[in-house]
Amino acid sequence: MHELGVARSLLAAVQENVPKGIDARVTDIYLKIGRLSSVVDESLQFYWAILASETICEEARLHFERVPAEMACRDCGEMYSLVGDLEACPKCGSWQVFVVSGDQLQLDYIEIERIEERLLT
Amino acid sequence: MTKIRVEQRILNANDQLAAVNRKRLDAADVFSLNLMASPGAGKTSLIERMMPGLKHDLRVGVVDGDIATSIDAERAMQAGAVAVQINTGGQCHLDAVLLKQGLDRLPLKDIDLLLVENVGNLVCPVNFQLGTHVNVLIASVPEGDDKPYKYPGMYRGIDVLLINKIDLLPYIPFRMDYFRRGVEILNPGLTIFPVSCHTGEGLADWMTWVQRRLAAGVGIGVHE
Question: What is the pTM of this model?
Answer without folding.
Answer: 0.90
